[in-house]
Amino acid sequence: MPRVKRGTLHHKRRANIIEYTKGFRWGRKSKLAAAKQAMMKALSYNYRDRKVKKRDARAMWNIHINAICRKNGTNYSQFIGALKKNNIAIDRKILSELSATRPDLFETIMAKAAK
Length: 115
What we know:
Elements: H1 7-20, H2 32-71, H3 76-85, H4 92-101, H5 103-114
Helix pairs in contact: 1-2, 2-4, 3-5, 4-5
């Protein structure tokens, strides 16, 4: 059987890894072993942080809602409890946006929840 050389595939795979790690610091952008490790680490963080980003966004919404609730004389947990008791189904993202852009509308929602 004739000999099959695979140098082109090796170089292509290496080039893809090096291309992915472009912009990394030190040898992690140019040395293959370090670049492979950095790429695997980056991909795992990428997967993990897509979930963390959602978690952080929800935490910020809660902080915004709590801040405007405290200005109006109540706190976050009492406000959310009152919303649930009165079957007012507005999610936290919308409540946070209303607290920032339309505080007057948010206060009417608070008044309805307090009844």
